[in-house]
Amino acid sequence: MSRVNVMQPWLGEEEVAAVSEVIRSGWVAQGPRVAAFEDAFAASMQVPHAVATSSCTTALHLALLVAGVRAGDEVVVPSFSFIATANAARYVGARPVFADVDPVTGNLTPATLAPVLGPRTRAVVAVDQGGVPVDLAAVRALCDPLGVVVVEDAACAAGSTYRDRPVGAGADVAAWSFHPRKVLTTGEGGMLTTTHRDWAERARRLREHAMSVSAAERHTSVLAPPEEYLELAYNYRMTDLQAAVGLVQLGRLPAVVERRRTLAAGYAKAVAAVEGLRLVQDPPYGTSNFQSCWVEVLPGYPADREGLLRALAEADVSARRGIMATHRQPAYAHVETGPLPVTERLSDHTLILPLFHQLTDSEQSRVVDVLARPAGRS
Ligand SMILES: *Cc1c(COP(=O)(O)O)cnc(C)c1O
């Protein structure tokens, strides 16, 4: 019996060939492959502009900068998210303010946002947590009239849909992750997408030290034009090696999402027959890529979350505790927050089930057997 991992990227010979080609070309840093990946990603996500970055964390940082968030502003974020969401606010000197989340989707809603929006709120970072699309139109209906920019943290959500379009398509600016824990990977990597041409142009500059002439332009011209550095900026570039992998992965995305949704439906069917477990599901207004397929362990279940994790480990199944609560981390001990009861409950009582493209039906059955009978197994 071999171990069942919680997540495994789906990489193959096409990625190997694509990277080899880049190495043979002699151009490995940000160049033509990055440009091609940006174009393909923008087309696929139905957005006019895409700017590749070194990670989603750096894309979030740039998103807040181009959205005009400044030191002293407040940025509302869910605590129920990977810590990068809140960290981005601090990178620009803003104060992160935590909002609670909806108990069903794990996402921000107008109801959870309303109590924490204030006169200093400059932006809201709305996460498509675990791939479940946030109800962006509802959030924007609240924020737009207040002049509050909504940044979509779509780190988990490539291949998820919102009102029959890709997630992120309706956002002023969105940030994406290509870490191997997500459904489309470039090793490390990210993307910023935006509907504003000027925001895209500024993000492109900020990712390479605000140089007036891009590195690619400089290196392709024999007599390089002199460059100027227009403002304080960063090196947040993606490499052509990563972009070559990303182009292949983007082609795989529909098949990956289809398989993930089939496997999630398998879990849903099994869990429906088990008293005391609730599986995350599609909201009425969209579809999830099930990047994180989590179950909530309710009081009627024969084990608690830790007990279920142990039972799975005994069957050599690697599951993970649910999404973190950022406000409980030492790095946020100094940040005052109001009560976040749903965040704490979901963080304490959920776990993420194994789900990846290559997971076999028999491996999934092993997981389901434990879910059905966590105690008294021999
Ligand atoms: C993974 C993740 C990030 C960070 O992505 P990186 O590419 O690793 O920087 C940010 N936000 C959310 C919601 C994530 O899940």
What does the model show?
- With 378 residues, the chain is of the alpha/beta class.
- It is built from 12 helices and 14 strands.
- The chain has helices at 13-25, 32-44, 56-66, 84-91, 110-113, 136-143, 197-206, 215-220, 240-272, 305-314, 341-349, 361-372, and strands at 49-53, 74-78, 95-99, 121-127, 149-153, 161-162, 165-166, 173-177, 190-194, 277-279, 286-287, 294-297, 320-321, 350-352.
- A 7-stranded mixed β-sheet has the order 1-9-8-5-4-2-3, with helices on both faces. It has a 4-stranded antiparallel β-sheet with strand order 10-12-14-13.
- The longest helix is centred in the last third of the chain and has 33 residues, at 240-272.
- The chain binds pyridoxal-5'-phosphate.
- Pyridoxal-5'-phosphate (PLP) binds at residues 55-57, 81-82, 84-85, 127, 153, 155-156, 177, 179, 190.
- The site of pyridoxal-5'-phosphate has 14 residues, from helix 3 and helix 4.
Number of helices: 12
Strand content: 5-15%
Instruction: Return the average pLDDT rounded to an integer.
Output: 96
What's the helical proportion of residues?
A: 25-40%
Name every ligand kind in the structure.
Answer: pyridoxal-5'-phosphate
Which sequence of strands runs across the widest sheet?
1-9-8-5-4-2-3
Shape: globular
Radius of gyration: 21 Å
Q: Give the ordered list of helices and strands.
A: HHEHEHEHEHEEEEEHHHEEEHEHEH
- Main sheet, how many strands, which sense, barrel? 7 strands, mixed
Runs in which pLDDT lies below 50 for 5 or more consecutive residues are none
